[in-house]
Every structure is written in C-alpha cells, then in structure tokens.
From TrEMBL:
Protein name: IS66 family transposase
Keywords recorded for this protein, A-Z: Coiled coil
Organism in which the protein naturally occurs: Bacteroides xylanisolvens
Classification via Pfam families: DDE_Tnp_IS66, DDE_Tnp_IS66_C
Annotated Basic and acidic residues bias: 112-132
PANTHER family documented for this protein: BLL1576 PROTEIN (PTHR33678)
Domain Transposase IS66 C-terminal: 547-581
Lineage: Bacteria, Pseudomonadati, Bacteroidota, Bacteroidia, Bacteroidales
Start-end of Low complexity biased regions: 152-166
Xref: NCBIfam families: transpos_IS66 (NF033517)
Domain Transposase IS66 central: 258-540
Residue ranges, annotated region (Disordered): 111-174
Coiled-coil residue spans: 14-108
C-alpha cells in the first residue's frame, strides 16, 4: 500500500515537471518570436541608413563637382587679376615716367625755387612757415629794381658762346639713365608679313627688377666613417652651381648677407618700419615674422658693431675740421622709480669729418650733456663747427685744444623768425645773403683754401662789420628790455659773433653747420616712419647703421654691397677692422 502511494507521488512530481517544461518551452518560443521581430526592425533601420548613405554620397558628388567648377573659376579670376595688375603697373610706370619728364622740363625751363631777395622787400607779411630753416646762399645780392635789368642782360647773353665751367653738370639728355645689366632683344625679320617692307629699327627701352626671395634647400648626405664619426657631405649635381651650404651666413641664421644688408638698408637708410620691411619681403615671395627678422638684425649688428671704435678713431683724426649737431629720438627705457618701461625723448649726436669722408652717430644713454661731449672729444685736437648750444661753449676755454666755429645759418634763422614783426630783420638777412654769395663764388671758381681765405677777408669782412654795426647798438640799448623775436635774434647773434665770424680767418672752415644738419635727415625720417626705438640697444645699433650708411654715401659706395661684403669678411675672421672702413676700401661696391 505504501508503495502505491509512493508511486502516485512520483507520478504527480513528474506531471508537475512536465508542466514546467511546457511552460519553459512556451516562454522560449515567445522569446524567439520577439528576437525575430527585433531583428526585422534592425534590418529595416539598416536599410534606411543605407539609403541615406547612398543619398549623401550622391549629394557629396554634386558638391564636389560644384567645388571643382568654383576652383576653376577662381583660377581663371586670379589669372585675370594678374593680367590686370600687370597692366595697371605698366600704366603707373608710364605715368611716373611722364610726370618725371614733365618735372625735369619744368626745372630746365623755370629753374629751381630759392629764397629771393625781392621776397624779403616786397612781401613783409610772409608766413613764417613758408620760410626754410636752412639757408644755402642762393638769394641774389642785387637790389630789387635791378632784377629785371639783370634778367634782360642774361637773356641777351645766352646767344653768345660761353666757356664751359668745370663745375657745370653735364649729361642731362636722353643718355642720363642706364643700368649695369643690359639684355638686347632682337626681332626675327624673317616673319615680316608679305606686302610690308623694312624702313628702319626703333629702340624701345623698359626697366624691370626681379623682386623675389629664393629659398635654397640643400640635400645633405649624412655619412659615417669607420670610426663612427658622422659628417655631412654635399656636392652639387650641377657643376655650374657655385652656391654652398653654410657660406655667407652666420651659424644658426638661415639668411645670407646680401638679403640681410637689404633689410638693414631698407630700415635705416629709407626709414621703413620693421613691419613694412616684412611686407616688402612678403611682396618678394617670402613670409617672415617680425620677431624673427628683429632677431636677425640684433645678431648681425654684433658683427657690425666691431667697426665702432675704428670709426671713432678715424673721425677724430688730429687736425680735422668736424661738424657736430644733435637731434631727438623716442627710445623705450626702464623707469626705475615707476618700475616699468616707458618712451622718452633721447638724443643722438651726429659728427661729420668731410676731410676723412666719414660720418659718425653717437648714442650715449640718450644724453647730450657736457660729460658726453668731454668724454667723446677727449684728446682731440682740431676744429668743430656747431650751433649755439651751451655744451659746445666748453671748446672756447683757454686750455681747450679745439677751435669752435659758429653757424651763420642759425643766426639767419632767428632773423627770419622775426621778419614778420620787425622790418629791420630784412636788412640783416640781405647782408647775410651777400656773405653766402661770397661762398658761392668761391665754390664756383674752385678756389684753394688760401685763395678762399683771401677772398673772404676782402669781401666778407666788410659785410660782417656792417652787420655788427647794426646789431651791436640794439644789443646795448635793450639789455634790460623784454626780448621779442627780433631782440632774441640780436642777442643770439651778439653772443655767437666771435665764433660765427671766425670762419673768415680759415679757408678750410665753412660758414655754417649745414653738413651736420643734413646728417640728421635719416633720423628724422625714421622718427616719422617707425616712430621710436624699442630699446637703448636698438638706438645704439641704429646709430651704428646710420654711421655706416652715411659714410658709404660720402665715399660713393653702395651700402647694400658694402655691408654684405663686410659681414663676409668679419665672419671669415678678419680682425684688422680699420682696413674694413669705407675710406680704406678701394673696391667699388
């Protein structure tokens, strides 16, 4: 009985297990059906994504075609712009040539403008701004009423033959222009159209210049020897290629000396800012950063500054006649009180020695104090022509080895400023113009120093005496009066009279300080264009570059070629710096 119950229990358990298995099978079937449904949805989504990809590919192809057509149109437009630019440049060159020819013909027809004596007597209400600061002695010494008679006499004497003066300029005709490199282009006469005949040859001249910076890439072969030493090897495949790597460059600076010289001349001779120099290089097909170019300048200036002491020694040659002046420059300096950098007005001295054909610019912490002058001119024996700045009065001490000459142009300038307020200035200006006519006659007749001194004593001393008789009573009578423009001019002339009139005793001396005044022009151009120097080192480097460029111009040398050649010699180990100065170089750069 018990066995039967056990069997029934077991059967019941089996039946319950069968029901569980059936339930699990139904659940598995449901899961399979859901999986198939999900797979179908995924496949449909994939199909839709594939269709979208096909559509996008078609759109991309259309966009690619449109972009290709746009690039072709852009290329055609650039070619058209290039053609128009070339045509515009040709038109501008033609216009510039025509304007130059018109200006040249006007100068030949009407002559140069100058300060005429008639303007001093006829126009008393002249604007002071229209009067030039520097007087060059071009005013006539004849009275106004005699001008028309002299003009008629000169016109009638043009037909008569005149002896050719050695100081006259020549070759102002068609051959006054030229170039060193000449390429002749011949015409092929075999293709002359039928029915035409040759009647002559006509020459048409065109000047061009290649503004292009070339990037040279050298493929160096790295070699290793049996001992493990590694070296570079380079031999050009073209036997006519003379350029070699690491030549005409400073180590670590990939710019050759000629390009570096052009950068320096553009900045310091033509007064371009560093940004404009970089823009010019960009026009020549090269892109450089201003900081990179500035680093190049600083490094190359270390080599050129080796010539500073030889420049000074040659300038201060004993017995020389110097001309000295100073001007301002904005320089970025450090203010210790405020603890920051600021721009201040600093001074640069300009000293010229025409006998030795050398110009020197001095920057000594931006000062123009007496200590700077004493330090620079220490041990010099000679003469200096200056304006009335008080520092130069130290040369007038009894124990001084330097003779100071004054500047008549500064004296005249004071009376020109007073011309509008006091008519007496016109008479003094007329007398000063007569002094300059004496100097002009000496230059035209090519007088020697002794002949020049004798001519001055004969003709200039009476004029100086007449001027002194006019200004000395005014000075004595107005000692305690408030100084107006005319009295200021009189007092300046009286205080400077001994130095100003000293030139008549020396045929080597000049009447004014204009040689030094003209030295200041490059600095004034730079002050207007690049505004300031970024540091005191920059101001010192600028002074050295001004010295080199102005000295090259005095010696008839081209600054670009000279600087490039000197950098080559300095980096090659040349230590005889005196032989590198422009005056000691016989080679024409």
């Amino acid at each position: 009985m018990e066995d039967k119950e056990t069997i029934n229990i077991l059967i019941a358990q089996l039946l319950s297990k069968d029901d569980e298995i059936l339930r699990l099978r139904n659940l598995l079937d449901d899961l399979q059906r859901e999986q198939q449904s999900g797979n179908m949805q995924i496949l449909s989504k994939l199909d839709r994504a594939l269709e979208e990809l096909k559509s996008m590919r078609h759109d991309n192809k259309a966009l690619s075609n449109r972009l290709s057509r746009a690039l072709e149109a852009k290329s055609a437009a650039e070619e058209k712009i290039q053609e128009l630019s070339s045509a515009l440049e040709a038109l501008e060159n033609t216009r510039a040539d025509e304007l130059y020819e018109i200006a040249r013909q006007k100068r030949q027809l009407y002559g140069r403008k100058s300060e005429k004596k008639s303007s001093l007597s006829a126009t008393k209400q002249k604007d002071l701004k229209e009067d030039k600061d520097d007087f060059d002695g071009s005013a006539p010494s004849a009275p106004v009423e005699d001008l028309e008679q002299k003009a008629a006499e000169s016109a009638s004497s043009e037909a008569a033959p005149r002896s050719e003066s050695p100081s006259c300029r020549k070759d102002y005709g068609k051959q006054s222009t030229g170039a060193e490199n000449v390429v002749v282009h011949y015409c092929d006469e075999s293709d002359i159209p039928s029915g035409a005949r040759k009647i002559g040859i006509r020459e048409w001249i065109q000047y061009s210049i290649q503004h292009q910076v070339v990037k040279h890439v050298f493929k160096l072969v790295r070699l290793v020897d049996t001992q493990g030493n590694i070296s570079n090897y380079y031999q050009p495949t073209d036997k006519n290629d003379t350029r070699r790597p690491f030549e005409n460059v400073l180590e670590g600076y990939p710019v050759d000396f000629e390009l570096m010289a052009r950068i320096l001349v553009d900045k310091y001779q033509y007064g371009l800012s560093l940004e404009r120099v970089v823009d010019r290089l960009k026009d020549a097909g090269a892109r450089f950063n201003t900081s990179t170019v500035l680093a190049w300048i600083k490094r190359h200036m270390k080599e050129l500054c080796k010539l500073e002491e030889p420049f000074r020694q040659l300038l201060l040659t004993p017995g020389s006649m110097l001309f000295s002046d100073e001007t301002t420059e904005q320089v970025r300096v450090y203010n210790q009180q405020k603890g920051k950098y600021e721009y201040r007005k600093q001074y640069i001295w300009g000293i010229k020695n025409p006998d030795r054909k050398i110009a020197y610019y001095l920057y000594d912490n931006g000062s123009r104090s007496m200590k700077v002058a004493q330090k620079f001119f220490a041990g010099f024996r000679g003469s200096v022509t200056t304006d009335g700045y008080n520092v130069y009065k130290m040369f007038e001490r009894e124990d001084s080895s330097i003779t100071r000459y004054g500047c008549m142009a500064h004296v005249r300038r004071k009376f020109v400023d007073a011309l509008q307020t006091d008519h007496r200035s016109a008479d003094i200006i007329n007398l000063i113009s007569n002094l300059y006519w004496v100097e002009a006659d000496c230059r035209i007749n090519l007088l020697s120093e002794d002949e020049r001194r004798m001519e001055r004593q004969k003709r200039a001393i009476p004029i100086l005496a007449e001027i002194w008789q006019m200004i000395q009573p005014v000075f004595e009578q107005t000692r305690g009066d408030t100084a107006n423009l005319f009295l200021k001019a009189v007092r300046y002339a009286v205080n400077e009279w001994e130095a100003v009139s000293r030139y008549v005793q020396n045929g080597k001396a000049e009447i004014d300080n204009n040689p030094a005044e003209r030295m200041m022009k490059p600095i004034c151009m730079g002050r207007k264009n690049y505004l300031f120097c970024g540091s005191e080192l920059g101001a010192k480097n600028a002074s050295m570059l001004y010295s080199i460029i102005e000295t090259c111009k005095m010696n008839g040398l081209r600054p670009v070629k000279y600087i490039a050649e000197i950098l080559t010699k300095l980096t090659a180990g040349e230590t005889n710096y005196m032989s590198l100065l422009p005056i000691n170089n016989n080679k024409e750069y």
